[in-house]
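Good morning,

Attaching, inline, the backbone tokens for the sequence recovery test we're adding to the shared suite. The designed sequence is right after.
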């Protein structure tokens, strides 16, 4: 069966890179759309996001897509990517404070200004580049080895790496959540579309995931 995938277009960038990666990952037809009716007809939905969390929430609300995302929870599998993960939480410090969608409990906070690596060298913000993800048990990690490296670009993070919804942890100065999950929703801080084969494997898993944890 050819999966019908909607990538939500609310003015964020990187949409077509996500669409192309999904098409490479498996048998699917991808539509980048901001049309609520088209999104509702999809078998699966991607909520992407780049840039500032406040801009992304404003873009969703302006198009009336914030309520649509909430309505999709439990109806079709949904995957958040980068800021698309962050806006699924309750609140973000960025953009002078952002009330988010509240699908996951917890907040998005800035990396501390002064962080050091294990060798005492200074760590820069944003966290940009390849880093390992320690996975917790979840069907979306099927076939992906623990400590696989994915590509990150972000200055804010979900710092509570021990929260119940956390299914992947990365370390940059301190542990933070690389992946969050609940029934029907899986969200990652990194960019699968920039993560080569590992990212394609994750998108391939999304194409067959039944939404269970």
């Amino acid at each position: 069966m050819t999966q019908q995938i909607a990538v939500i277009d609310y003015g964020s960038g990187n949409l077509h890179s996500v669409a192309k990666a999904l098409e490479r990952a498996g048998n699917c037809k991808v539509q980048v759309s901001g049309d609520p009716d088209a999104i509702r007809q999809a078998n699966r939905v991607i909520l992407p996001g780049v840039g500032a969390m406040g801009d992304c929430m404003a873009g969703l609300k302006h198009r009336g897509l914030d309520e649509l995302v909430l309505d999709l929870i439990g109806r079709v599998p949904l995957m958040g990517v980068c800021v698309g993960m962050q806006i699924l939480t309750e609140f973000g410090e960025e953009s002078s404070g952002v009330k988010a969608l509240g699908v996951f409990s917890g907040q998005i906070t800035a990396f501390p200004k002064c962080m050091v690596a294990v060798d005492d060298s200074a760590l820069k913000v944003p966290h940009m580049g390849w880093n390992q993800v320690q996975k917790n048990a979840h069907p979306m990690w099927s076939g992906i080895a623990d400590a696989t490296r994915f590509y990150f670009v972000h200055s804010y993070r979900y710092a509570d790496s021990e929260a119940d919804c956390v299914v992947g942890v990365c370390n940059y100065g301190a542990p933070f959540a690389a992946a969050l999950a609940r029934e029907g929703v899986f969200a990652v801080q990194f960019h699968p579309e920039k993560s080569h084969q590992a990212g394609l494997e994750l998108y391939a898993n999304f194409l067959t995931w039944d939404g269970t944890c």
